Amino acid sequence: MSVAGYLEKLLNGAEIEWMALENVVELKRGRRLVKSQLESEGKFAVYQNSMTPLGYYHQSNTNPDTTFIICAGAAGEIGYSSSPFWAADDVYYVASVDLLNNKFLYHYLLSQKNKILSQVRRASIPRLSKTALDKLYVPVPCPNNSEKSFAIQSEIVRILDAFTALTAELTAELNARQKQYNYYRDLLLTFDGQSGSRAVGQVEVKWKMLREIGEFIRGKRFTKADYADNGVSVIHYGDIYTKYGISTTQALNRVRADMASSLRYAQPGDIIITDVGETVEDVGKAVAWLGNNKVAIHDHCYAFRHTMNPKFVSYYMQTTSFIAEKAKYIARTKVKTLLVNNYSKIAIPVPPVEEQDRIVTILDKFDALTNSITVGLPREIELRQKQYEYYRDMLLSFPQPEQDVTTGA
């Protein structure tokens, strides 16, 4: 049976009433906590301006099984917690709900996420008003028969939860693999001593500062307005955070060919490093350029030119120990900035090329399983998420009047 046919059978002619959210739920704004009140570990998660807990607190101000929406920062993000938590002042949460299963409401709001995001005011800090949420219309099956209504909602929730449970299992597996990968990466790239040289078995490992190994070449500015279908291959610093891994052979973008002489380039084998970011991990994020030709880099990037195995260097720059070292040379202003002159003094291990190649071969296998977007767990998670979204949108596609009540227009 098709999804549409199943929904029709499930409803069995039941009436669908579309109601403004303010008439169905009590939506409250959370209460502020100052940083000094937060705990690194605690009983209740604190949600502030993102879906990542800001910290923990010894009290909660919500009930179990609560839907909530971020209203500042990551405004428009929608969450659900089976456990009580503390909602801070950048969170709206469902304090009480009438006529709707809370989890049903959560799934429905997810299906309307694009419409909710369209109501976010884009300022220095994105914000979502309670008024915009109150006027959002939601479907209520069989409103005059609560038993039948909740039976319909619960069945839809059961089906959708089965998809999200599978995705959660795969995500947990991916996180476990990532931890395993990080452990073995750090283990393989840990060498005693920070200066001179030492032998590991029959392998001599020297420690040298980055500036002793190579040189840093800063890129030249270009903007997204310069992008073109054909022209000079470029790597923008913003893409290094999210779109590139340890290495790449292809640039994702191009700029106009007439800009070629005004740009600066990374050569094959160079490490491309960002010099700004929102987090310590982002600043100094590294990707090895393994393309056959040079590639232009943004002025918030440096090309580190050296003679080592480029992937060995890139892998080492992801290690816990290296991140701790580079943190010392980051200016912690509103936008964190890398102080490259001091950064270049960081010492890294320099084993023989054969040992570098051996370590890279091992780590490549872990990296392929953990981080590849075309094979392994990430690809499977992506497919399951698309499957969930397809069934969610079909199961929640209730008949609507001619007027688009989902936007209140």
TrEMBL record:
Enzyme class (EC, first level): hydrolase
Type I restriction modification DNA specificity domain residues: 17-176, 205-382
EC number, as in UniProt: 3.1.21.3
Keywords: DNA-binding, Hydrolase, Restriction system
The keyword Hydrolase is assigned to this record: yes
Listed InterPro entries: Restrct_endonuc_typeI_TRD, Restrct_endonuc_typeI_TRD_sf, Type-I_RE_S_subunit
GO biological process terms held by the UniProt record: DNA restriction-modification system
Record flagged with keyword Transcription: no
Gene Ontology molecular-function annotations: DNA binding; type I site-specific deoxyribonuclease activity
Sequence similarity: Belongs to the type-I restriction system S methylase family.
Protein known as: Type I restriction-modification system, specificity subunit S
Source organism per UniProt: Trabulsiella guamensis ATCC 49490
